[in-house]
Amino acid sequence: MYLSEEGRYYLPIPKLNPQQMGKIRDELRGRGFSVTGEQDLRVVGRESRFSMTAAGLAWSSVDLLDQVVPSLLNVLVERRTQSDSNPYFVSRAREPGFEIHFFPRMESLKRWNSLRREGLSGLTPDEAHVLTSVLGDSKGSVECITDYPTEGASQTQYGRRFYFRSTIQVSEFLLNLRTISHAAGRNSYLPRSSVIRITDRPREISRRTWEELGEWCFVEHLPKSSNSAI
Questions:
Q1: What is the extent of the structural domain holding 195?
Q2: Which of 90, 93, 128, 161 has the CA that lies 20 to 30 A from 220?
Q3: Cα(114)–Cα(122) distance, integer angstroms
Q4: Do both 29 and 93 map to the same domain?
């Protein structure tokens, strides 16, 4: 995915474990690249340079497919490992309900603005699946961004595109959720903060959910203390 505003190509990759990152580092060095870092790699070649993080993203000023994909193919045979880093989300009790802070690869911070200006979405299939799994039972509403007007919404503009700060039912938010691979006539997006507030307790991630993430994720995240970090 190319974001013209930033002049960068972004390539979502699987969430990787330390062993896989080590193999990728060795493989890249074997192909003649200079590589520094452990979980966040900085890679320099004769004609290109790029960055890659275990959290699931690679980026560069040039197209990344030829540089990154060969390295990934050699490590996607590893089994999942348990990890307490690079979580999908952290949930906290916040009266009168719960606050869930998601950590998507691209749908956050500066990239969020660039994506909205260009009419794109950076939400990956595994992130959308986790969102649906965590929020699916909630009967309440959420504050989010939509590209269609809703009752009581306020209009906002990014570049030449208009969006709306909306409060809609969780079911509608999930039904219209825009992802990298799916767009519809009516689309919803995480807010720029990536924070969702709901009245019901978030649903826990099950073993089946991990299995359904497939090759998008090679780590299993464990809850930390009284707050759930997944």
A1: 89-229
A2: 93
A3: 10
A4: no
